[in-house]
Amino acid sequence: MTKRLTAAVVAATLGFFALGSAPAKADDPYWQCVTFARMFSGINIFGDAWTWWSQAVSKFRTGRAPETGSVLVFRPEGRMRLGHVAVVSDVLTDRVIRVTHANWGGSRGKVEENVTVVDVSGQNDWSQVKVWYNPIRDLGTTVYPTYGFIYKSARDAAARDAETPTPVPNSRQIAAMATASANQN
């Protein structure tokens, strides 16, 4: 109970520092969560978000503990019928992380940076989470089931020294990559 209360207090405190998103421009790219997660995590998996977990099990390390640069895979449920993926940008406590992800909730097609996610599972295993919802300036009320985390290192490399986590890009880097990608088309 104390851990849950601590996690909720940390999440609420962090939320007060969350910034609103900038207004959309006609030439802004429309990001899907899988395209964003693949591009910025370096985890080269394709297909709907809910398929990432089964694809990753034989190719990448997977687990229940967050690491910076890993991808949190949400199970499909309710309106989120294709699942969701988000890149871990920071691990704050054993039950609170920040993610950077695209095409979530009120930010359709946009990238949200450093969004607070709290583990609300009874076993402290990240199987159930709540996500910060900026319009209400608090954690959302929905509890989302997850599969766990996909780590960048290949499955056969898991026994070797861990790789340095891939930093998650900031807004300027995202805009520069989107512009470069648009110019190639």
Description:
With 185 residues, the protein is of the alpha+beta class. The chain has helices at residues 2-15, 33-41, 52-56, 171-184, and strands spanning 60-63, 71-74, 84-91, 96-104, 107-119, 128-133, 138-139, 144-154. Strands 2-3-4-5-6-8 form a six-stranded antiparallel barrel. Strand 4 (96-104) and strand 5 form a beta hairpin. The model is unreliable at 7-21 and 157-164 (pLDDT under 50).
Overall geometric form: globular
User: Which band does the percent of strand residues land in?
Assistant: 25-35%
Give the neighbour order of strands across the main sheet. Answer: 2-3-4-5-6-8
Distance between the termini: 52 Å
Describe the main β-sheet briefly: 6 strands, antiparallel, barrel
The Cα radius of gyration reads 16 Å
Q: Structural class, from helix and strand content?
A: alpha+beta
Provide the residue-averaged pLDDT: 81
Extended strand count: 8
The portion of residues assigned to helices is 10-25%
Uncertain spans:
7-21, 157-164
| H/E topology pattern | HHHEEEEEEEEH
Output the number of helix runs: 4
Present the secondary structure layout.
Layout: H1 2-15, H2 33-41, H3 52-56, E1 60-63, E2 71-74, E3 84-91, E4 96-104, E5 107-119, E6 128-133, E7 138-139, E8 144-154, H4 171-184
Antiparallel strand pairs: 1-8, 2-3, 2-8, 3-4, 4-5, 5-6, 6-7, 6-8
